[in-house]
Amino acid sequence: MDLFLIYLVCFGVGLLFSIVSAFTADVFGGHDIGSGVGAGGHAEAGFSVNDVPGFSALSPATIASFITAFGGLGMIFSKFEATRSAIVSAPLSVLGAFGVAFGVFCMFRTVFRKTQSSSESRVATLVGVAATILTPIPENGVGEIAYVQLGTRYTAPARAEMGVPILAGQTVKISRVIGTQFFVSAG
Question: Going by CATH, does the domain composed of 123-186 fall within 3.40.50.620?
Answer without folding.
Answer: no
